[in-house]
Amino acid sequence: FLEALADGAVEAGMPRKQAYTFAAQAVMGSAKLMLETGKHPGELKDMVTSPAGTTIEGVRVLEEKGFRGAVIAAVKASVEKNKNM
Question: For the chain, which has fewer Cβ within 10 Å, the N-terminal or C-terminal residue?
Fold first, then answer.
């Protein structure tokens, strides 16, 4: 996810080194906020999305492309592989 996030930033014109820093800080900030507030990730998402804004547009594309399902399937596959080792 971090590499893909950075690649998207590079595609938008950000230098590679800055894109990796941006991606890591974005993920770290989100995780830290969730841990510190105890809020559900969906609640945090709702706090930062504006009607017809950039964040909800990104969320829409992630959902359209099956990001959530792909992550869940990857975790499930890893757990199953671990059980069979």
Answer: C
Q: Cα(25)–Cα(2) distance, rounded to whole angstroms?
A: 10
Q: What is the pLDDT of residues 26-55, one digit of tens each?
A: 999 999 999 999 999 999 999 999 999 999
Least Cα distance to 62 among 37, 79, 45, 76 occurs for 45
Which ranges in the chain belong to alpha helices (H)? 2-11, 16-37, 41-48, 54-64, 67-83
Hey, CA dihedral for 68, 72, 41, 16, is it positive or negative?
Answer: negative
Q: Cβ-count burial of 59 within 10 angstroms (0-12 exposed, 13-18 middle, 19+ buried)?
A: middle
